[in-house]
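Weekly puzzle thread! Below is a chain. First person to post its structure in token form gets bragging rights.
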Amino acid sequence: MSSLALRGPARVVVLQHRRVLWTTGALALAGIVLLTASMWWNSGTADTYADTGCSYMDTSPRCQTAFQDMLDHQAWLRDVLRYAGVAMMVLPAAIGLFVAGPLIGRELESGTYRLAWSQSVSPARWLLAKLTVPAAIAVVGVPVLSAVCVWGRTSPDTDRLAWYDTSAYAAMGTLPTASALLAIALGALVALLVRRTLLAMGITALVYGAVTVTLGAVRSSLWTVSTVITPLNAPGRQPADSLWVDGGLMAGDERLPGDLCDPGPVSDMDRCLADHHVTGTYVDYHPAAHFWPLQLVGTGILLVLTAAAVALAFRVLRRRHA
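Winning reply:
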């Protein structure tokens, strides 16, 4: 974002923090280059193995070495993608800490905000600029990083993480951008409330972390699960690429705990199942098709919290600096 294309408080924000913004952009670009280079270096490992004419059943040293080499490459790229996902999980918190600390908290603590307000800039316009600049960067930059992570998962040479894996799920879809916007809003609100740089950063991290953990804990309940009921002693039919939510025994239409008849002597287990009239088992799960419904519901929750935090931040600003 060029400061020359901006006017007023937004231009001042960019000029004040241009080093941080340039450094952040450089780190993001370095991450994209690293992931792209990893994909390129790892590309074709499956084809190379196929060209050897070997299969995983072959026991010859040559084939075993080639097969292990392919697995090592795939596992290495999977780890790179996992680290990229972890970085995407940390990124919103880092943005929130920047807003709570250097962007707003430091000005309130040192009193330099009075200089801006004396230059025909109202408190509301000042805060709007403080929110708009990082929000614009998040809306533009975070989806790009997320798209690179998604592209990495599509490689046929990747030993892929499941879509519901925490690091993969948090790096894809609309959730990363919504998380960044929430962190920005929380950072601004906390900074206005406590007016201390380090304290604001600490509280922002705690609040954002609590929201993230809570949303992750209730993720499975954000959308109706699919259920498969299987007759007793028959193999289950839960799709392989699915998130297991719950499971247990069925007695007609009644659900019973899965550990009701703990493994023991066969006769005791059979007697237990018969005494409770168990007819089958059930499994609740989220198939891969539920990725977007879960993402969009979670995104909606985060955006509602973001809007509430922004509204509260402006209200605090008006009450203290009307």
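Puzzle host: Confirmed. Bonus trivia for everyone else. The CA atoms of residues 50 and 119 lie 69 Å apart.
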